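REQUEST ID: PR-0412
SUBMITTED BY: lab tech R.K.
PRIORITY: routine
TASK: structure prediction, single protein chain
INPUT:
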Amino acid sequence: MNFHTKPTTFVGHVQIKVKNLKQSISFYQDILGFDILEQTPSSVKLTADGKTSILSLVQPENAVPKQGRTTGLYHFAILLPQRSDLADLVVHLSKQGIPLASSDHLVSEALYLNDIDGNGIEIYIDRSPSEWSWEAEEVKMTVDPLDFDDLLSASSTESSWQGMPEGTVMGHIHLHVSELVETEEFYVNGLGLDVVNRYGRQALFLSSGKYHHHIAVNIWNGEGAPAPSHNSVGLQSFTLVLPDEDVRLETIKNINRIGGNVKEEDRRYITSDPSGNRIVLEV
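STATUS: complete
OUTPUT:
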């Protein structure tokens, strides 16, 4: 099953703020292998297939460095089509001297790195859903060490990273929030997602269509963590793609019912979770 097409609700696009757009474009093009789809003096839309943007960079006025101990972006996660793509990327990033963390989550194999501003990035591949283990409504995930020898055995014969392959999508987003009770109500009763894993009292993993997670939230920056300043490096917004207009109207109604708010800006419907993380509701 494809967990990033309709009728599943999924994260289609992430927009992040950077301090120096020119330098950031170089990182995302030369190191990660994105192409430019559209560009203005203060923003750029990046693409893997030359047609659709899954990631945008924007340089706000008077941009300031990433602020610690705040809500906002923990990481956005790029999902590659094949295991060989991830293996080739490991070789490429190693040659570039990029520091990496990694993990085997049982449902996926993942690399972790930061861009030049400290924005967190996960790049991963999914294991087959037939290999995922569910107990009642929760999927089993862990943070085991990644077996690099086994992963690299899947590298293509040329062992050459040719840039983000066609079929790359925005797999999920993981957010810092200030608390979990109202946050869970917003994402479940407002946006209609299901909790598929609880990491103690520290984090929630939520999804649509029995995916392991489209959105995760955590309180690792502290309960009551404040929102960052509007011109701080970090998350600008992310887009949640809903199945159709009827679902979007029902979602807006549900958000208003639980005390949230949806605004229409430039023919886009925008809401924020209880911690101020901005979400564009798209169909």
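NOTES: The chain has one domain: 10-282.
REVIEWED BY: pending
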